[in-house]
């Protein structure tokens, strides 16, 4: 299928509009479309990883080109000047060489190019690097050009691109001025152009959905692609289906006990002497944490898809318990994978799952924690994909999981927004939530993303400290990588091996982070901080004694950070903490670690 | 010409052996490759160990963990391959999960594979949808990016994948992960026939092939076989000679 390049982008909104394109071009040569390396690097944060980022140059030096390739970073280079062959060959990324075509003789020059791809354009008039004039496509006829390296540009627009592809069947089409209005890019035209190329082909269209900026995607073995695509389609359908939404909300209220209060924490507010503090009470949900919101949504979806077998992973056991609970409610077959290490520290939850009729499989591989449980659940899914739904427990995994889990958890933020407007008549100044894979946090944050005045703070587990090798602070310390089906941020070594995470809290003990969080961190919309095991334990005590609420260890990370954050805020401000779960499951840990408590 | 293209023109049933690089120490890799080459295999897939190999069963995962314990990395494997002075006469492929490649740098990966004489790469967690992340770089080195198709691949996807297939197509024989199996299901035969009918490049069956009965069952429907866990197991147990009959069952008898 012919690929699409949208060239000369300068604004974030246009980069986003070009999400389905195969390549984005940034112009570094003098032009009204010129961008700096820094501007391009900023825009590149919004481009999916598998989309090519192409830099356009005119007679630049190798040094300039290399610096730009590294700085953005770019995946290809496009040359519009009189670059010599040795420069072309010295460039390490694939190169596109542009030619202005006026006559059949010009076409001959193309064939001798040393570049990986050749781009044909109509002759420029005022400056080089693409003129926007219409190129006479018929010149290419009978010229015996390798079409798999041919890129066609020059005067393309949504109205004529179909015909251009029909005449030349190139590798890629390239457009710039054809998707502009009054010299500025036009999002509607960009989308229409891409649609014209992609949707008129007989082939299955490849959607670039499922990316948050460059993160996300569907990096799974081929065996799972069918299931992932089916899930994507099924989810698209139910998202808009009022009957499904009604059913989901019915169980949330009648079974889970929503809506949960937004409790004013009076004594904590007084003790910290700063902002008014409110607690979003996910601890009051049936099964004791936010996980059940997602489990209900996904189980209903699985049944719609005709699947009555469920596999899930669990870390703290909260998601396992929520899943086992819902499977009991709907009479679904349930297998839960759980790391051996976690089984030890969350005994009570293991027993609860068994009591609820689930089969709990112990995972002894790797670090024997959440990451390894996800691996085993994925393998189980690969082998049983026709009749089994993988009910993933956090905003992780291949698309559509991160989006779907976020949507099912967004009830947290939606209620919070309604409640705070009710109580205070305005939005909070800061909201904190703990981040393991990121589901309670994204569910809380998502309804507030557009409200720029609300500061959003995600709290990771620093374990024994972010400067030790025992932590789970993925956004603080991690780097880009692919794990469990998505490009995200990961704790990994220099050779790309995923490292073991550490946290006293099993639910935060994961070396990755949901792709949407990775993007929100990159663009600075959410700030991510970290809290050590010790600090979290201290917060368990203070919250228990001040408010009579014993929080889960995971939630205690958000509480501990809130205590720090409150010191930087004033009495007329409002702070909300997401108390993602209650501490019952952690009682053995508390008894051991807080021994001698008086 | 890329060695994989030469293979295609030879017309014989292929036997592709998978080994885990560095299982038992990286210095064993060379011996293993030389041994398999001499034993008559058609091509060798060199597996790169990864911490989270979700497409693999216990045998290969355990081999990968042994290799990781020895400090084996993608870089070290490619360095090792570059240092070889013996005559490599068969195509060598690298099979790796995507993350080590991303960390190494896709472009650098392709260039180093080129220098190491690699003919093809297989990245099981890089689906057709995202192959553009790697394709332009391997193209530059004339290295083939091998695609997988499975029993769950829908017909439209199959067409899309096969249209752009290069080198060979890796047709997965099971719904599941790698690992030896006793039985091959009947629909596998029909699936192989369908894939082969549409594929512009040879179709090799892989995952779970460990016995000559599997080979006999599928022989007429595929162009070759990929054997992994059984070989990894045999090298680990120091019984690699026991694999030779399987190699010969593929490459000798009734060759077309
Ligand atoms: C109470 C509680 N909070 C938070 C988490 C962390 O998960 P997430 O980041 O997906 O909300 C868990 C996970 O098990 C949990 O049980």
Number of strands of chain A: 25
List segments of chain B where confidence is low: pLDDT < 50 over at least 5 consecutive residues: none
What is the averaged pLDDT score of chain B? 91
- Helical/strand content category of chain B: alpha/beta
**Which percent bin holds the helix content of chain B?**
40-55%
Helix content of chain A: 25-40%
Q: For this entry, what is the oligomeric state of its chains?
A: heterodimer
Shape of chain B: globular
Q: Can you characterise this structure?
A:
The complex is a heterodimer of chains A (598) and B (256). Chain A contains 23 helices and 25 strands. Chain A has an eight-stranded parallel β-barrel with strand order 1-2-3-4-5-6-7-8, surrounded by four helices. In chain A, strand 7, helix 6 (161-168) and strand 8 (172-175) form a beta-alpha-beta unit. In chain A, helix 10 (266-272) packs across helix 21 and helix 17 packs across helix 18 (439-445). Chain A is elongated. Residues 125-131 and 201-207 of chain A have low confidence and may be disordered. Chain B is of the alpha/beta class and 256 residues long. Helix content of chain B is 42%, strand content 14%. Chain B has helices spanning 3-10, 28-39, 58-69, 74-82, 98-104, 106-115, 135-140, 155-163, 187-198, 212-218, 229-236, 244-251, and strands at residues 14-20, 43-47, 92-95, 120-122, 144-149, 169-172, 203-206, 224-227. An eight-stranded parallel β-barrel of chain B has the order 1-2-3-4-5-6-7-8, surrounded by six helices. Chain B is globular, with a radius of gyration of 17 Å. The relative contact order of chain B is 0.17. The mean pLDDT of chain B is 91. At the A-B interface, strand 12, helix 8, helix 15 and strand 21 of A face helix 5, helix 7, strand 5 and helix 8 of B. The complex binds pyridoxal-5'-phosphate. Pyridoxal-5'-phosphate binds next to helix 12, helix 18 and helix 22 of chain A.
């Amino acid at each position: 299928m012919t690929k699409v390049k949208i060239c000369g982008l300068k604004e974030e909104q246009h980069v986003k509009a070009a999400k389905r394109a195969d390549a984005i071009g940034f112009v570094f040569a003098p032009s009204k479309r010129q961008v700096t390396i820094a501007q391009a690097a900023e825009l590149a944060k919004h481009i999916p990883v598998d989309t090519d980022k192409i830099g356009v140059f005119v007679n630049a030096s190798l040094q300039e080109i290399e610096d730009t390739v590294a700085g953005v970073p770019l995946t290809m280079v496009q040359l519009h000047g009189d670059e010599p062959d040795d420069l072309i060959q010295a460039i390490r990324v694939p190169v596109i060489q542009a030619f202005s075509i006026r006559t059949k003789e010009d076409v001959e020059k193309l064939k001798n190019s040393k570049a990986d791809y050749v781009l044909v354009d109509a002759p420029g008039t005022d400056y080089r690097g693409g003129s926007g004039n219409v190129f006479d496509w018929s010149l290419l006829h009978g010229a015996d050009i390798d079409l798999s390296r041919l890129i066609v540009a020059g005067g393309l627009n949504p109205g004529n691109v179909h015909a251009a592809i029909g005449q030349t069947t190139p590798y890629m089409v390239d457009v710039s001025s054809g998707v502009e209005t009054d010299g500025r890019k036009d999002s509607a035209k960009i989308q229409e152009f891409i649609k014209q190329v992609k949707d008129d082909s007989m082939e299955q269209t490849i959607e670039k959905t499922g990316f948050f900026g460059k993160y996300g995607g569907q990096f799974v073995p081929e065996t799972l692609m069918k299931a992932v695509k089916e899930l994507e389609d099924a989810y698209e359908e139910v998202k808009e289906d009022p009957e499904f939404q009604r059913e989901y909300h019915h169980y949330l209220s009648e079974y889970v006990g929503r809506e949960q209060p937004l409790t004013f924490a009076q004594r904590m507010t007084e003790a910290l002497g700063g902002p008014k503090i409110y607690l979003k009470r996910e601890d009051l949900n049936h099964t004791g944490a936010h996980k059940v919101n997602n489990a209900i949504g996904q189980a209903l979806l699985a049944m719609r898809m005709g699947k009555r077998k469920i596999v899930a992973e669990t870390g703290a056991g909260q998601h396992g318990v929520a899943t086992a609970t819902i499977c009991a409610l709907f009479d679904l077959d349930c297998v839960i994978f759980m790391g051996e290490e976690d089984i030890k520290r969350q005994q009570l939850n293991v027993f609860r799952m068994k009591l609820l009729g689930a089969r709990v499989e112990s995972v002894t591989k790797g670090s024997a924690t959440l990451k390894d449980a996800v691996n085993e659940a994925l393998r189980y899914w690969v082998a049983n994909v026709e009749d089994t739904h993988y009910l993933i427990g956090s905003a992780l995994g291949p698309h559509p999981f991160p989006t779907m889990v976020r949507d099912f958890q967004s009830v947290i933020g939606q209620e919070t927004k309604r409640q705070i407007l009710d109580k205070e008549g305005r939005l909070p100044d800061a909201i904190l939530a703990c981040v393991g894979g990121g589901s309670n946090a994204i569910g809380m944050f998502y309804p507030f993303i557009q409200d720029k005045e609300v500061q959003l703070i995600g709290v990771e587990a620093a374990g024994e400290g972010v400067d030790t090798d025992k932590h789970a602070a993925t956004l603080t310390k991690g780097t880009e990588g692919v794990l469990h089906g998505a490009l995200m941020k990961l704790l990994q070594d220099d050779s790309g091996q995923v490292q073991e995470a550490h946290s006293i809290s099993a639910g935060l003990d994961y070396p990755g982070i949901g792709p949407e969080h990775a993007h929100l961190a990159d663009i600075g919309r959410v700030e991510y901080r970290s809290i050590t095991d010790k600090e979290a334990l201290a917060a368990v005590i203070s919250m228990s004694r001040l408010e009579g609420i014993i929080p889960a260890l995971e939630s205690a990370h958000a509480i501990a950070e809130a205590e720090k954050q409150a010191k930087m805020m004033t009495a007329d401000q409002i702070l909300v903490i997401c108390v993602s779960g209650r501490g019952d499951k952690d009682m053995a840990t508390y008894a051991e670690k807080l021994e001698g408590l008086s | 010409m890329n060695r994989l293209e030469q293979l295609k023109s030879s017309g014989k049933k292929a036997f592709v052996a998978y080994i885990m690089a560095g299982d038992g120490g990286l210095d064993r890799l060379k011996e293993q490759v030389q041994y398999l080459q001499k034993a008559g295999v058609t091509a060798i897939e060199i597996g790169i160990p990864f911490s989270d190999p979700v497409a693999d069963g216990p045998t290969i995962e355990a081999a990968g963990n042994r290799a990781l314990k020895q400090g084996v990395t993608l870089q070290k494997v490619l360095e090792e391959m570059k240092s070889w002075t013996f005559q490599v006469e068969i195509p060598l492929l690298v099979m790796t999960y995507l993350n080590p490649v991303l960390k190494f740098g896709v472009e650098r990966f392709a260039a180093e594979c080129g220098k190491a004489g690699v003919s093809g790469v297989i990245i099981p967690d890089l689906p057709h949808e995202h192959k553009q992340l790697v394709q332009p770089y391997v193209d530059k080195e004339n290295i083939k990016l091998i695609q997988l198709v499975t029993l769950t691949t829908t017909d439209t996807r199959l067409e899309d994948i096969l249209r752009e297939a290069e080198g060979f197509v890796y047709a997965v024989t099971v719904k599941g992960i790698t690992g030896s199996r006793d039985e091959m299901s009947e629909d596998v035969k029909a699936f192989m026939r369908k894939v082969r009918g549409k594929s512009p490049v040879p179709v090799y069956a892989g995952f779970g092939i460990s016995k000559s009965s599997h080979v006999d069952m599928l022989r007429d429907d595929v162009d070759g076989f990929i054997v992994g866990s059984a070989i990894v197991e045999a090298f680990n147990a120091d019984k690699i000679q026991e694999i030779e009959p399987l190699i010969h069952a593929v490459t000798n008898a009734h060759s077309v």
